[in-house]
Amino acid sequence: MNMTVKIAIAPENALAGVGRSTDVDLAALREKVAGAVAEGGGKVVPAAEAEGLVWLLPGGPEPLIELLNDHPAVRWVQLPWAGVEHFAPAFALPPVFTCAKGSFAPQVSEHALMLILACLRDVTRKARTRSWLSINPRSLHGRTVTILGGGGIAGDLVDLLRPFGCRINILRRRPDPIPGTTPITDLHAALPSTDVLVVALSLTPETRHIVGAPELALLPDHAVVVNVARGPHIDTDALVTALRTGGISAAGLDVTDPEPLPADHPLWTCDTALITSHNADSSVYVAEMLCERVTRNVAAFAAGAPLEGVVDPATGY
Predict the structure, then answer these.
(1) Which UniProt keywords apply (predicted)?
(2) Active site members
C-alpha cells in the first residue's frame, strides 16, 4: 500500500514571500521546499489532490482561506513565518495550522545580544559623531535582563547571556519550566529593577503596546529597550519621547511601528536609537530552517505524530 502523503506548495507556479530580501532565487528556493517535502516522505501534488499544504504566498489570509474552502481535503497547513498574527482569520477553518515559531531563534537571539551590547556601549551615537566622543561604555556583566516572551528566542538568548552573569527575568503568559519564568502580569513589578528590557513575544491584541508610556516611565533612566519581535509591541510615540527626554538611555529595534519606518520618522533622529530594518535573520537562514521544519512536519503528518509549531487558534500563535 502506498502511504506517501500528498502535499501541495502554494503558490504552485512561483515561490514568493520566504525571507525579506529581493535577491532570493525563487525558483531554486521552491525546489528546496519541494525537496524538503520529498525528504519527509511526501509527494508534491496540485492543491486539488493534497492532504497537506505548505503556504508560501505573502500578504493577507484571503487567498489561503479561498483555497482551503475550495479544497476541504487539506487537513494541515504549514506557514513559513514565526509570527502569523496576520493570518488569524484562517485559524477558524478545520485544518491544523503550523508555523515556523522557534525555527529562527538562534539568529534572532544573536541579533538581540548584538543590540543589547551596542546600546550599552552607545555604538549608534558614537558612529554618527564625526569628532572624538569619549563616552564611558557600560558592561553587560551582572545586569538585570527582563525578557518578555518565553519561546525559542528567549531560551536561546538566556544561553547567550550566561557568560555575562546576568540576572534574568522571563515573563510570559503560560507557565514554563525555564528558570526565572514569571507571569507577564508581573511586568510592572519587574521594570524598576530592569537594566535591559528585551521584547521577544508574539503579537496579540493583549500584547499590542505592552510597552507604552507607563512601562517606559517605570524603567530606570539608564535602561535600554530591545525589540526583536513585532513593532506594535511598543508605543512608538512614547518610545521617541522617552529617548528624547532621557527616560531611557537607548533602544535597539529590529522591528518598528510603522514598518518600514518612513524616512522622515522622528525615530531616525534619535541618536540613541539603533534600527536594523527587520533583518535579524537572513533569507538564506530562513529558507534553510523552514525546509528543515517542513521535512520533520511532513514525516510527522504522514505518521500521525505531533507536529512542530502548532498554532493555537485561540491565541493566534
Answers:
(1) NAD, Oxidoreductase
(2) 230, 259, 278
